[in-house]
Amino acid sequence: MANRILIVDDAAFMRMMIRDILTKNGFEVVGEAQDGGQAIEKFKELHPDLITMDITMPEMDGIAALKEIKKLDPNAKVIMCSAMGQQAMVIDAIQAGAKDFIVKPFQSDRVIEAINKTLGL
């Protein structure tokens, strides 16, 4: 059975890029969210195997959403996505429980490597 992934990013084209990389590599994208609040709702509804989470989003940022998701499920697997130059935020995210991070612009092999490593594939 394909691993079920939730994509969270406020930019539609970024979600599309990740969805494209994931589906080409045999993963199932079960949902998408465009901010942290939506991410938490979708997580509760869909119970994905993994979440890719943008850090910088309106309403609720990725780190706040990560902390809430970790309260709901301490075993949730979340990979943070950040633009270059957000190292301090990446460190915050890892301390908050993120398993890994990928840097934008996305490189297909790095995305798949991070996901496979996080899922233990």
Automatic annotation (TrEMBL):
Taking every annotated instance into account, which residue ranges of this chain make up the domain Response regulatory?
Answer: 4-119
Say if the entry is tagged with keyword GTP-binding. Answer: no
For this entry, the protein name equals: Chemotaxis protein CheY
What highest taxon heads this organism's lineage? Bacteria
Entry-annotated residues carrying 4-aspartylphosphate: D54
- What keywords would UniProt list here? Phosphoprotein
Against InterPro entries, the record matches this protein to: CheY-like_superfamily (IPR011006), Sig_transdc_resp-reg_receiver (IPR001789), ST_Response_Regulator (IPR052048)
> Does the keyword section mention Phosphoprotein?
yes
Name of the encoding gene: cheY_1
